[in-house]
Amino acid sequence: MINENFLADCRKFLKPEQIILDAPMSEHTTFKIGGPADCLLKPSSLEETQKILQLVKEYDLPLTFVGNGSNMLVRDKGIRGVVVNFADNIDFVRVEGTRMTVGAGAIWKDVAEIAAQHSLAGVEFACGIPGSIGGAVFMNAGAYGGETKSVVKTVRAVTRDGEIKTYSLAELDLGYRHSIFQSNGEAIVEVELELTPGKEEDIRAGIADYTNRRESKQPLEMPSAGSTFKRPEGYFAGTLIDQTGLKGLTVGGAQVSTKHAGFVVNKGGATAADVVNLIHEVQKRVKEAHGVELQPEVRMIGEK
């Protein structure tokens, strides 16, 4: 249960639709899996985010951040405390010259489209990443040889004390599926991108190529969290899983995709426990067959 005084303080600056109690996280993740969050808050500005984090600290509540929910598995008993969701209300995109300032909740596909409209190149690789910009920075998301860090200039975040902090690219510690935010617990709210001028037709051709490759190879028609495993050095996770004969392997409602072995999908009614058990089985069999230890890329949060 959430402290009633905390909720009363939140209602002083948030609208009723920005506060959701017992929010089913299956509705806020691309896996369509997950138990309820005690309290889901949807700030619409940097200032509202500041106030929320100050209150969370004052009332000493657990805190979790969610963007588009595309790279996470919420466990079956849900998430205790406060979940701050940036996906719907902080999704602005502003363009000034070759710079784009983007709200953490903006989706990569939309950012790529707006960049194309302004003849700005550099984010074509990300057109198919289903996550938000904030999530992309958090994980340094990448695809088709491109990485988020290649276009980020600065990031504005809110600390656990409710203070606004601006990070330069060098301070973000962006590596393979890693950023400083995985350890400092701060909220990514705004990202500044530096792009390069290009021809709109060339940019759109690149987007079309990446989109076609993604649609032809990935199981986009089924709920998933994207690539399930990190790329092991010297290998591709999907290839190892395929070579081990695990396409179609099923636990409950979770399945290794028959289209791309690097994806675990929800084929209907999957629980988080199904997904976790399937991941463990894949890890075990790949280790036995190839001597390679696969590490999940999917972020697992909440209570079992």
Automatic annotation (TrEMBL):
Q: Name one GO biological process term.
A: cell division
Enumerate the UniProt keywords alphabetically.
Cell cycle, Cell division, Cell shape, Cell wall biogenesis/degradation, Cytoplasm, FAD, Flavoprotein, NADP, Oxidoreductase, Peptidoglycan synthesis
Report the EC code(s) recorded for this entry.
1.3.1.98
Q: Which Pfam families did the record assign?
A: FAD_binding_4, MurB_C
Q: Which residues form the signal peptide?
A: none
Which class of enzymes does this protein belong to? Answer: oxidoreductase
Q: Which reaction does it catalyse?
A: UDP-N-acetyl-alpha-D-muramate + NADP(+) = UDP-N-acetyl-3-O-(1-carboxyvinyl)-alpha-D-glucosamine + NADPH + H(+)
* Molecular functions per Gene Ontology: FAD binding; UDP-N-acetylmuramate dehydrogenase activity
Name the coenzymes or cofactors required: FAD
Q: Which Gene Ontology terms of cellular component type are present?
A: cytosol
Provide the FAD-binding PCMH-type domain boundaries: 33-198
The pathway entry for this protein reads as: Cell wall biogenesis; peptidoglycan biosynthesis
Instruction: List the active-site residues.
Output: R177, S227 (proton donor), E297
Source superkingdom? Bacteria
Q: What is its main location?
A: cytoplasm
- Give compartment(s): Cytoplasm
HAMAP family referenced in this protein's UniProt entry, alphabetically:
MurB
- What is its biological role? Cell wall formation.
**Which family does the record claim for this protein?**
Belongs to the MurB family.
Protein name, UniProt field: UDP-N-acetylenolpyruvoylglucosamine reductase
Q: What is the lineage of its organism?
A: Bacteria, Bacillati, Bacillota, Negativicutes, Selenomonadales
- The primary gene name is murB
